[in-house]
Design a protein that fits this description.
The complex is a heterodimer of chains A (284) and B (162).
Chain A: E1 7-9, H1 14-24, E2 28-31, H2 37-42, E3 50-53, E4 63-66, E5 69-73, H3 78-82, H4 85-90, H5 93-99, H6 104-109, H7 112-118, H8 126-131, E6 135-140, E7 143-148, H9 149-152, E8 153-155, E9 158-159, E10 166-173, E11 179-185, E12 195-204, E13 207-216, E14 223-224, H10 226-232, H11 239-246, H12 263-281
Parallel strand pairs in A: 1-3, 2-3
Antiparallel strand pairs in A: 4-5, 5-10, 6-7, 6-10, 8-9, 11-12, 12-13, 13-14
Helix pairs in contact in A: 10-11, 11-12
Chain B: E1 2-8, E2 11-17, H1 23-30, E3 49-52, E4 55-58, E5 71-73, H2 86-93, H3 103-116, H4 122-128, H5 139-158
Parallel strand pairs in B: 1-5
Antiparallel strand pairs in B: 1-2, 3-4, 3-5
The chains are: A alpha+beta (284), B alpha+beta (162).
Chain lengths: 284, 162
């Protein structure tokens, strides 16, 4: 099927995009890489009157080192982020998650900021950026503001970005030298994760000094597994210790039930996948 | 209507298109390049894979207007001077197809895969083709064709072995 008719603009600066957005308000939809939006438009689940394409705005692309953080432009494609040496060195969890995100064609076209702004609870980037304590930089008519990851994800497909605002970049605090792993459970290739776990941690002589764990598809937003993080701190990176800590993975979760598995099954998966993710991240 | 200018299989084209027109529709319906096929409605199957500025994309999941200013290569632009591309040759040699419907997308994605990783393992080939479905389930010979292409094009691409 083809989308319903819509008007289209492709501004070349962020300022022009914000102006277009304020003119069209609710009737407008932003397109980044379009890998989530275009299927929705094709199936006519959404019919915006105006589509504002950010594809020609160069200032929204690129990755830079900014002291204690790596800054990823919202329009940077997954394939670029996933193979970037700066990101690999300072936020290894991100490329681990991107490695198995969708497929090669979609990683070429889909963007880091687009996927996060779309806020699908089964999306692969939410849990890693939450675990890494990222900050979201959002531009609007009143200027630029920043939102911490803990406040960015509001609900199913809903973020802290207002209707007249655009996500411009994501700042990831450096976690240099931290081990990382993204453990994703799917039945078939190219599927959204039924559940996935993002884990990154620092070890010191076989002891976990600090761990960060995020859960994918265990609620209407990505969720930090703070209970697991607390339980891991100061523990040896051994199978037994990690197994015990992983039992807390379901705390504060509210997983969906669907054809891929009911909530109880997802809670079981969360514990198993957390154990695997943490042990892998610890290199144990 | 929106004016677009792009290069498709080496030829410059310009058209006024509806913003909602998908790149695959533009290629097939405006340019008559029916070698690129539509297999699904969900951006899962990869049959419509083309190269946009040298990278594989699913052309059912790109608007024609988003390709403004870009260089597009379809399955019809791979052969040069009547010579099949080494990956096309490999699919023929290894019979990397059954019904043939997924073949254009499989070949375009394989070309991209080999560009990024000229000597992939079998697992890397299967992962690299994850976004392309063969509903005949003829994956075995497709993987063999990619291996064949990797073995036979390395000499041509990288020169004589040391």
């Amino acid at each position: 099927m083809i989308p319903v008719q819509f008007d289209y603009v492709a501004p070349t600066t962020l300022g022009e995009a914000l102006t277009a957005l304020s003119q069209h308000g609710d009737d407008a939809k932003i397109i980044a890489g379009g890998q989530s939006l275009l299927p929705v438009l094709r199936m006519r689940l959404n019919a915006p009157e105006m589509v504002i394409d950010l594809g020609k705005i160069e200032e929204l692309r690129g990755i830079r080192d900014d002291g204690d953080a790596i800054v990823i432009g919202a329009m940077t494609p997954h394939a670029v982020v996933g193979s970037d040496p700066l990101v690999a060195e300072h936020a290894a969890l991100i490329p681990k998650a991107i490695e198995h995100l969708a497929d090669a064609q979609i990683r070429h076209r889909g963007t880091f900021g687009g996927a996060l702004a779309h806020a699908d609870p089964a999306g692969d980037l939410g849990a890693p950026v939450l675990a890494l304590g990222a900050t979201f930089v959002i531009a609007g008519p009143a200027g630029v503001r920043t939102v911490p990851a803990d406040e960015f994800f509001v609900d199913l497909f809903e973020t802290a970005i207002n209707d007249d605002e655009i996500l411009t970049e994501v700042r990831i605090p450096k976690h240099t030298g931290w081990g990382a792993h993204y453990e994703k459970f799917v039945r078939v290739a190219h599927q959204w994760p039924i559940v996935a776990v993002a884990a990154t941690l620092q070890t010191n002589g076989g002891t976990i000094s600090e761990a960060r764990v995020g859960l994918t598809n265990m609620g209407s937003t990505p969720i930090r597994a703070r209970g697991v993080e607390e339980a891991l701190a100061g523990q040896p990176a051994t199978a037994d210790a990690v197994r015990t800590a992983s039992e807390r993975a379901t705390e504060g979760t509210n997983p969906p039930s669907d054809l891929n598995g009911d909530a109880e099954y997802r809670r079981h998966l969360a514990g198993v996948l957390t154990r695997r993710a943490v042990l892998n991240a610890a290199g144990a | 209507m929106t004016r677009i200018n792009l290069t498709v299989d080496g030829e410059k084209v310009a058209d006024d298109v509806e913003a909602r027109m998908l790149l695959v529709q533009y290629l097939r319906e405006k340019l008559g390049k029916t070698g690129t096929v539509i297999g699904c409605d969900t951006s899962n199957c990869g049959a419509c894979t083309v190269h946009l500025n040298g990278q594989s994309v699913k052309s059912c999941n790109v608007l024609a207007v988003q390709a403004d200013g870009a260089e597009v290569t379809t399955i019809e632009g791979l052969a040069t001077d009547g010579q099949l591309h080494p990956v096309q040759e490999a699919f023929r040699e290894c019979h990397g197809l059954q019904c043939g419907f997924c073949t254009p997308g499989m070949i375009m994605q394989s070309v991209d895969l080999l560009k990024e990783n000229p000597h992939p393992s079998e697992e890397e080939i299967r992962l690299g083709l994850e976004g392309n479905l063969c509903r005949c389930t003829g994956y075995h010979n497709i993987v063999k064709a990619v291996q064949y292409a990797a073995e036979h094009s390395s000499g041509a691409v990288e020169g004589a072995p040391a």
